[in-house]
Design a protein that fits this description.
By secondary structure, this protein is an alpha+beta fold. It has one domain: Creatine Amidinohydrolase (Alpha-Beta Complex), CATH 3.90.230. It contains 4 helices and 14 strands. Helix 1 runs antiparallel to helix 2 and helix 3 packs antiparallel against helix 4. Bound molecules: magnesium ion (2 copies). The site of one magnesium ion (MG) has 5 residues, from loops.
Length: about 260
């Protein structure tokens, strides 16, 4: 992948813009989260996200993203066995007991923020809740390794260990990535790997970490719409993501309010 070879270390001024893009992205999340109720069409979630972006003079880098067909929406909405890249539609409605993953990007003043969350609709099973907890915990375990002097393999290994030690699976086919002027830059950061390997982290490196976790298998397949990725065994999945900057001290999460 060509994008994975291009690493751009950001200046403090560039990080300020990325932080602003991240705030907007977090505002999109907060708005969509309020709408996660039974009966709501996934296209309505996309429309609400677009309204927030418009208000902030931002757009989504997802819209028309190159693929087999240009991606048609500003967010992705994935329900239950759908892991990533689910296309919002008017027909698809949320049901009580579903778990939903929302992924959104914000392009603002030349920089991108990228983050995702998963949440339940109405009452969800304790197994589904555990999956959400483990996936979010894996993201936090990865973020904790985003320190100057560590390597990307330290992040990957931390995420893999967190997930697999709790009996869940991480996908091999989709990864975290550098983020900046482009949604996808180097370095590529898989959700599995070996400590001590990979790119040396230094202040100004910005990465979108995104554990994608499955209950029954690491294998996935793509639906005939050419975008939606599901678990190969149709088991439940979840996805959490933040864009984070390496600093001289603590990791700086860009995609929070
Ligand atoms: Mg994303
Ligand atoms: Mg991403």
């Amino acid at each position: 992948m060509d994008w994975a070879r291009q690493i751009h270390v950001k200046t403090p001024a560039e990080l300020e813009i990325m932080r602003e893009a991240g705030r907007i992205n977090a505002t999109v999340h907060a708005t969509v989260r309020e709408l996660l109720k039974p009966g709501v069409a996934t296209a309505d979630l996309n429309a609400a996200a677009e309204e927030v972006l418009r208000k902030h003079n931002a757009v989504s880098p997802f819209k028309n993203y190159p693929g087999p067909y240009p991606y048609p929406a500003s967010i992705t909405v994935c329900i239950n066995d759908e892991l990533v890249h689910g296309i919002p539609t008017k027909k698809r409605k949320l049901k009580s007991g579903d778990i939903v993953s929302i992924d959104c990007g914000t392009s603002f003043e030349g920089f991108v923020a990228d983050s995702a969350f998963s949440a339940g609709v109405g009452e969800i099973s304790s197994a589904a809740q555990e999956l959400l907890n483990v996936t979010e915990g894996a993201l936090m375990a990865g973020i904790d390794k985003m320190r100057s002097g560590n390597r990307t393999g330290d992040i990957s290994a931390a995420i893999q260990k967190y997930v697999e030690s709790r009996g869940f699976y991480v996908t091999r086919e989709y990864t975290g990535h550098g983020v900046g002027r482009q949604m996808h830059e180097g370095p590529q950061v898989p959700n599995y790997g070996t400590s001590g390997r990979g790119l040396l982290l230094r202040p100004g490196v910005t990465i979108a970490l995104e554990p994608m976790v499955l209950v029954g298998t690491a294998k996935t397949k793509v639906l005939p719409d050419q975008w939606t990725v599901i678990s190969a065994d149709k088991s439940l999945t979840a996805h959490f993501e933040h864009s984070i900057a390496v600093t001289e001290g603590e990791p700086l999460i860009l995609t929070v309010l």
